[in-house]
Amino acid sequence: MSTTITSQPFNDQRPGTSGLRKRVRVFQQKHYLENFVQAMFDSVGDTQEQTLVIGGDGRFYNQTAIQTIVKMAAVNGFKRLIIGQHGLLSTPAASCVIRKYQAFGGVILSASHNPAGQEGDFGIKFNIRNGGPAPESITEAIYQNSQHISSYQILECADISLTEIGTQFLQDMQIDIIDPVADYAELMSDIFDFPAIRALLCNGRFQMRFDAMHAITGPYAKEILEKRLGAEAGTVINGVPQADFAGGHPDPNLTYAAELVEELFADIGPDFGAASDGDGDRNMILGHGIFVTPSDSLAILAANAELIPAYQKGLKGIARSMPTSQAADRVAQALNIPMHETPTGWKFFGNLLDADMVTICGEESFGTGSNHIREKDGLWAVLFWLNILAIRQQSVSEIVRQHWQKYGRNYYTRHDYEEIPIEIANQLMEGLQQQIPDLAGQSLNGHIVDYADNFSYHDPVDKSIAENQGIRIGFTDGCRIIFRLSGTGTQGATLRVYIEAIEDNPDNLFEDTQTRLKDLIEIADSLAKIKSLTGRNAPTVIT
Ligand code: VG1
Ligand code: CO
Fold first, then answer.
1. Ligand with minimal distance to 15 CA
2. 189 is catalytic
3. Could you tell me which residue ranges the Alpha-D-phosphohexomutase alpha/beta/alpha domain spans (predicted)?
4. Same domain, 230 and 369
5. Which residues pair with 84 in a beta bridge?
6. Domain that holds residue 121
7. What are the distances in angstroms from CA 491 to CA 471, 487, 495, 498, 537?
8. Atom of ligand 1 at shortest distance to CA of 277?
9. Domain termination residue (choose one: 380, 407, 434)
């Protein structure tokens, strides 16, 4: 029976960089999830007779939320739901499924790498027909609707079963429970040279380790790497998804994937290491004794794209988020293809990909992807690297070094200061904003400021404008410092400081990053007064 439930707005339902993310207990408030879902259904266009994909990263509250969404979808016009078995779909797999079945859109339940469990975080976002995150016009409409909501529609009925693959009906609505891995695995085999990768993985010498960090990528990595590509059993570690990610923090970086890093940096260790995040869209790439920064990884993938079957004909263009290093720009220039700079967040790549203006995209935050779907894609990046290694028959370290020798190196680091009081963070950004008009021309620690601004993006496709996307300071020598506040945190504010220096001298390509960037790090601190305002002596996380 369809029921209209009276409700009142919650004032904190504005989606951030990637959907609405809050503590689980916030979502557990009466009507909280329902309000947001109703606001979402009311904002995404005509839902009558449409097909909706639903799945999440398996964290605590995933299945509970899915049952609610299913019961609301049934009385909000949808004709068919496609749901991953047990409610699971990695973010890239959800994007793949939306596109493959030409669905109207999808609801992805995830807070990515944020810790999970009853005391952890939960998240929800809407992806549109192209498989990508809803653009700002829609996320803003969802927020506006959430602020005026007075009721929502829900079917009163028993929970559906998420355990068996197959078709069931809820009133007139068809529900298909699908294998969450199969469609995605098939897409990967269409893109990459699986026989070449299989030959590499089975040559008796090459060793790899993939850390799924107890999150969603485990089943995907096992199926693709171990089953289809013949990697030794045990290649995938921490491969069983758990509702609390085993108490961990599945963010694939040097801090949180320490176990993997240690193995790759031991005297005798695997040739290749990789990790993915909670929802499977991020990747970290390691070789024996080397960490590949995500910005370098993007540049290297682009430079080697023609070795991959799906990109053999070359790239239309490359896009990177503004704070991502300019390493990929050098490749675009050499290939004589356009380079696009977008604000942080994958939603800004969608239009460029749909218009076929770019083929490969990336962010410094361990995100890389291409036109095969409309989300960043962790395993795709891993397979891309494996395909390059299989063809070039060189080590990761040789490939990276040769890349720097050819294109120069962009030394790059990001310093995060987490859980700063919001007022302090705002004060810090405001202080920087006020300095903007006076910075150009000044000499700071020997670097002359070329420009200082607050980045705004003019989308070349739909002409929309996104303002206030981060303060950037560019120097005449190509160095950059960027400051922005995170839009995915759930506790206080997170300040991100991005620092980049350009090196073309072949004698200076192999220095330690933090040492090399020391003078710029000092400039960043003195401009933003980080230490004095936050009272912190060091960043929480350095990547
Ligand atoms: C962060 C990253 C951004 C990424 C976003 C979602 O956003 O910086 O590059 O797109 O997370 O990634 P923010 O606003 O906290 O800097 V994920 O893997 O959480 O879906
Ligand atoms: Co993620």
1. 1
2. no
3. 13-152, 184-286, 295-407
4. yes
5. 178
6. 2-180
7. 22, 11, 12, 21, 20
8. 18
9. 407
pTM across the whole model: 0.94
For residues 291 and 376, state if they share a domain: yes
CATH of the domain at 448: 3.30.310.50
Question: If DSSP codes are grouped into helix, strand and coil, which group holds residue 170?
Answer: strand
Which ipTM score applies to this complex? Answer: 0.97
Ligand 1: which residue has its CA nearest to atom 20?
A: 112
**Residue ID of nearest Cα to ligand 1 atom 19:** 112
Q: Which of 387, 407, 427 finishes a domain?
A: 407
Please answer whether residues 470 and 321 qualify as being in contact, where contact means their C-beta atoms are separated by less than 8 angstroms. Answer: no
Nearest Cα to 219, choosing from 258, 257, 185? 185
Residues in the chain: 543
Q: Is residue 117 located within the same domain as residue 36? A: yes
Residues with CB under 6 A from ligand 1: 17-18, 112-113, 277, 281-282, 321, 344-346, 363, 365, 367, 486-488, 496
- Closest ligand 1 atom, CA of 111? 19
Question: Would you tell me how many other CB atoms lie within 10 Å of the CB of residue 350?
Answer: 24
Q: What is the pLDDT of residues 462-495, one digit of tens each?
A: 999 999 999 999 999 999 999 999 988 778 899 9
Out of 90, 112, 276, 295, the active site residue is: 112
pLDDT in tens, 48-104: 999 999 999 999 999 999 999 999 999 999 999 999 999 999 999 999 999 999 999
Same domain, 23 and 159: yes
Same domain membership, residue 465 and residue 324 = no
